[in-house]
Write a structure and sequence with these properties.
With 204 residues, the protein is mostly helical. It is built from 7 helices and 2 strands. The chain has a domain at 13-28 and 38-151.
């Protein structure tokens, strides 16, 4: 007999959702017993840009990348875990992505996706100076497509996603600021939808 508590959604979506949350939100304030949520500042740019994966890139965060092949992200020994230092602390763009095994494996999977696109870019004959950016672009596009076409519909339903997509396309959703560099620009459609739905879920 099928348990009534079993749902129809893929079991991995909650872990993927946690990864997405880490990608578009980060609270860097000091831990306190009580914090007014209205005073919190998001340290992430809510653009589904995989900042939690890439950090500031091979130049800004070289410790996230392979020394002999800086187009590729660093992976742990034997390819079965995220990279760690001598004390066992994960070397990742966001420490929250090593908070438990499922999250660290989700992060590892994304590291491998990027590295696979590096290999693909080279097979396609892309000049070496453009390999990293080509792999980043492909990884982001596939990630954003998954969020928009699969994850969000499973979370809130396709009609709500269609409604928010229409708002993003007609400009009724304001541009999103990027806290890191102070540039204001409209986020990709998938990021616009994700951040707008997240804001509505919080009552925003």
């Amino acid at each position: 007999m099928r348990a009534q508590s079993l749902g129809q959604s893929a079991a991995g979506w909650p872990i993927f959702g946690q990864f997405v949350a880490h990608d578009i939100t980060a609270d860097r304030s000091t831990l306190q017993h009580y914090v007014d949520p209205r005073g919190l500042r998001n340290a992430r740019a809510p653009q589904l840009s995989l900042e939690c994966l890439y950090g500031d890139g091979p130049v800004g965060h070289p410790f996230l990348y392979q020394r002999d092949d800086p187009a590729k992200l660093l992976i742990g020994l034997n390819g079965t875990d995220v990279p760690c230092n001598a004390e066992g602390v994960a070397i990742v763009g966001d420490p929250r992505n090593d908070s438990h095994m499922l999250m660290s494996q989700m992060h590892l999977a994304m590291l491998k996706v990027h590295n696979a696109f590096v290999d693909d870019a080279r097979r396609r004959g892309i000049p070496e100076h453009g390999v990293f950016e080509a792999a980043v672009r492909e990884t982001r596009w596939h990630y954003q497509w998954t969020v928009l076409q699969e994850f969000l519909p499973s979370l809130v339903g396709q009609p709500f996603v269609d409604e928010v997509r229409a708002e993003c396309l007609d400009g009724s959703v304001p541009p999103t600021g990027t806290a890191q560099v102070g540039v204001r620009r409209r986020p990709p459609l998938s990021a616009c939808a994700a951040s707008t739905i997240a804001g509505r879920d919080r009552g925003g």
